Amino acid sequence: MTETLIALVAGATRGAGRQIAVQLGVQGATVYCTGRTTRAQRSEYGRPETIEETAELVTAAGGTGIAIAADHLDPGQVRAVVERIGNEHGRLDVLVNDIWGAEGMFAWDKRLWEDDLERGLRLLRLAVDTHIITSHTALPLLTSRPGGLVVEMTDGTAEYNRERYRVSFFYDLAKASVNRMAFALAEELRSVGGTAVSVTPGFLRSELMLEHFGVTEATWREGAAKDPHFAMSESPVYVGRGVAALAVDPDRARWNGASLSSADLAREYGLTDADGSRPDFWRYEAGGFVRPDDYR
């Protein structure tokens, strides 16, 4: 009998994190869904999505969703999550670090010396420190037996982020740092039979992005009237399916240290987005924004 996969999706409240949790649920996994926004209290992010909703979606998809409120900047709160997983299952098979929560904390039109320092440092704490704290706390349980997987979620492949400036000093540093974290963890996990990768979606149609474009998931193509590149966007289901396929791949160690996109995973595992397409945003952008239909 195949063991039920035990996963922790840190930052599962919305967007990619939510759908990664749900698609792990499709695979029958038990998924601990953490974040700061609950039905009782919203985080500073101010969004309405909650971890309870995510956990319910996981269960509806065929898995077991468990919501735990946790601020991943607080080592004590993260420790409590990991201790609960250890007490209830004695192991952790998959850790997904999808913590972000820094939307609106970077400026598109300001150089480092013009930007707000405190806001920029807060962005780095939310986007980088949270991942470090979570991995530091969860890895003893994940490495207690061979085969564990760490997925570091970011924006942009390592190659893309190395060659291009990303929006602002603070945003650029945060996203490139997460790519590097996966690379470094891969080296450290190799000796204990673990695997670490970084994964990026493309132009993600998160709840926030749909609102920004004034569309719904059903009408998203109308957003291309505001920005033609939106024609290359993808739903969170796409990257969710990819990470879930990676998590159940018995040969996933071959990816150790890799920087992967949702399109890379879709090609490897024969997946599509929810609409049946297979968008490849990073290849599209690197190619100079030529004909979106050629990259779907």
From TrEMBL:
Top-level taxonomic group: Bacteria
InterPro entries associated with the record: NAD(P)-bd_dom_sf, SDR_fam
SUPFAM superfamilies linked to this entry: NAD(P)-binding Rossmann-fold domains
Family annotation (Pfam families): adh_short
NCBIfam families documented for this protein: PRK08303.1
Protein name: Short-chain dehydrogenase
Source organism per UniProt: Dactylosporangium matsuzakiense
